């Protein structure tokens, strides 16, 4: 679904990614981990076609991202950035319905099944009770769920999330992670999600990509990558991995 080979990217004169390669497969949730400035957001923006590649290959569905028109790229890739504004003057339902735009004609008329997809997405994201509320009346956490719902309504096979649950409270963050995890499996999505929450990553990720200073430290199955040694190397601190009574892996830094 997604292929990166020998990718180099820069912010001005500063290297952001150095010789990064990875693949994303359908039905797998891959989590990006690393300290601030490690290149997580840059990598996501490259796949979304929002940042230039200095050298290397970035492909989605077998086509170079740079060769795809914006509408076609939006049919393949849905992206929830770390910070974005919800358009005001619209209801929650109307904003979520904007996710269907890549599948509609010039006049953005609803195609068969659009309304059904929007309604289903509202229910999945626990927004159905808020569907007719103006978005400007929502809390920050509720607005972030609207962002996620709009991306899911695109029905793209590739889903990119940049700290999507960062502004949510504990209950809604967990609901967000569980929603994404379920959709990845049920809809066979290829999902790449940047996270800071190591415990959530260990619980929900199928694979982990560990970055530090723009370079790959490790990638592979979650249990193999999220070790004390590799996490400590990436974050530059001592990381202790323990197991809670319910079997969840817990992480602490010193």
Task: Itemize the secondary structure elements and their pairings.
Layout: E1 2-11, E2 14-24, E3 28-33, H1 40-47, E4 55-60, E5 63-64, H2 70-76, E6 77-80, H3 92-97, H4 114-124, H5 140-153, E7 158-162, H6 170-186, E8 190-194, H7 198-204, E9 207-212, E10 215-221, H8 222-225, H9 228-235, E11 239-243, E12 249-253
Parallel strand pairs: 3-8, 3-9, 6-7, 7-8
Antiparallel strand pairs: 1-2, 1-4, 4-5, 9-10, 11-12
CATH classification class: Alpha Beta
> How do the strands line up in the largest sheet?
6-7-8-3-9-10
CATH homology-level superfamily: P-loop containing nucleotide triphosphate hydrolases
Counted by DSSP, the helix tally is 9
Helix-strand topology string: EEEHEEHEHHHEHEHEEHHEE
Summarize the amount of helix as a percent range: 25-40%
Describe this entry's structure for a reader.
The protein has nine helices and twelve strands. It has one domain (2-224): P-loop containing nucleotide triphosphate hydrolases (Rossmann fold, 3-Layer(aba) Sandwich), CATH 3.40.50. The chain has helices at residues 40-47, 70-76, 92-97, 114-124, 140-153, 170-186, 198-204, 222-225, 228-235, and strands spanning 2-11, 14-24, 28-33, 55-60, 63-64, 77-80, 158-162, 190-194, 207-212, 215-221, 239-243, 249-253. Helix 4 packs antiparallel against helix 5. Helix content is 32%, strand content 28%. It has a six-stranded mixed beta sheet with strand order 6-7-8-3-9-10, with helices on both faces. Strands 2-1-4-5 form a four-stranded antiparallel beta sheet, covered by helices on one side. Strand 9 and strand 10 form a beta hairpin. The protein is an alpha/beta fold and 254 residues long. The radius of gyration is 18 Å and the shape is globular.
């Amino acid at each position: 679904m997604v292929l990166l080979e020998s990718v180099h990217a820069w912010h001005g004169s500063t290297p952001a990614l150095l010789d990064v390669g990875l693949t994303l497969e359908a039905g797998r949730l891959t989590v990006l981990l690393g300290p601030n400035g490690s290149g997580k957001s840059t990598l996501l923006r490259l796949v979304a076609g929002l940042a230039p590649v200095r050298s290397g290959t970035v492909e989605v569905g077998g086509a170079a991202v740079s060769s795809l028109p914006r509408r076609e790229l939006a049919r393949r890739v849905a992206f929830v950035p770390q910070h974005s504004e919800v358009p005001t003057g619209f209801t929650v339902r109307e904003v979520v319905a904007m996710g269907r735009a890549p599948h509609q004609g010039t006049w953005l008329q609803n195609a068969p099944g659009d309304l059904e997809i929007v309604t289903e997405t509202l229910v999945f994201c626990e927004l159905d009770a808020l569907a007719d509320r103006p978005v400007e009346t929502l809390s920050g956490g509720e607005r972030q769920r609207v962002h996620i719902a709009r991306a899911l309504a695109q029905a793209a096979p590739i889903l990119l999330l940049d700290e999507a649950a960062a502004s949510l409270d504990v209950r809604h963050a967990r609901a967000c992670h569980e929603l994404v995890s379920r959709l990845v499996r049920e809809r066979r999505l290829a999902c790449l999600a940047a996270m800071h929450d190591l415990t959530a990553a260990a619980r929900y990720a199928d694979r982990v990509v560990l970055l530090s200073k723009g370079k790959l430290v490790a990638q592979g199955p979650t249990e193999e990558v999220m070790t004390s040694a590799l996490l400590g190397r990436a974050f530059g601190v001592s990381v202790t991995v323990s197991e809670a009574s319910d079997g969840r892996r817990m992480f602490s830094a010193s």
